[in-house]
Amino acid sequence: MTDMVAAALRAPESLSERSLEDWDLLVRQARAAGLLARLCLRLEAAGLIDRVPEGPRDHLVSARVLTDKQGRDVRWEARCVVEALRPLGIPVLFLKGAAYVVADLPAAAGRLFSDVDVLVPRDRIDAVEETLARNGWAGSDMNDYDQQYYRRWTHQIPPMAHIRRQVTLDVHHTIVPQTARIRLASDSLLEAARPLDWPRGGMVLAPTDMVLHSATHLFNEGEFDRALRDLSDLDVLMRHFAAADAGFWTALVDRAAALDLVRPAAYALRYTRAVFDTPVPDDTLDWACRGAGLFGGRRTLMDLLFKRMLVPNHASSRNPGHGLAQWLLYVRSHHIRMPLHILLPHLARKAWRRQVGEDTV
Predict the structure, then answer these.
(1) pTM recorded for the entire structure
(2) What are phi and psi of 119, to 5 degrees?
């Protein structure tokens, strides 16, 4: 099995001699990974897009046009959210893909979006939810258990969606679940956040915190449908921030230690360098791996698991053991997020609901 997408993003010039059969598979893998538009942009930047055969080129350009449109939609939604919450006089931080767009970061280019994520102070979360509801965002239709799951145990309220635009809005009060072993209050994130020129009143996480949040989401949440896309985001973010600030790598590991996020930081540094040749300094990677205890048997095991998931979500790129790795990392993610006395009943309930055909969170 072969992951053609990472190789194409690393060296787009290597695609010039590809056959139509190769292009067909590459397009399928890149679309499954959510990276078709980013690949188009890499080819355009290298002056190679006109050398791509017409059929696959049409798919590439179409994907890029779609992400351009989604980026405009996200900007509009961000403005609407800030305006709706302005009377509360609170900071509104945009997270993940929405943050890349409003901060005009390279990671926004060619990125698909499924929702808009924001972070607000936890002590104002009820007022935020009420204000959004008055301004057209409706809460999710969930049963009592799922409502409790979000409000008591996670780091956000149930997703909301605007009744006209149908854009999903995830409102967070921190970046890790309340039941997680990592205790991370949002105060330190808010204190270091950067204000935006537009929309005025909006904010984004500091560069180190943005990378750490992306790493934590990828390596702790157990969601791998777009894992290669998320790893590519980390690669693009770290390259950009390191080019702009010579002290970025030192600041990143210091901040990871301060926030107790050394382990996801170590995974991000190790696997971006392995997959995308991200220029992570040796001493930075060594420090993070030592701090995370990522050596010997643990490193071998996690390599076996993560390297099976950090590929396009397509049958042609899956290696033997993919299903087992996915299940083990799914269980691991829940163990990170919940103590056993909550986790075991929750997993049992999810399994039963799947048996009877109910949706689960």
Answers:
(1) 0.93
(2) -125, 135
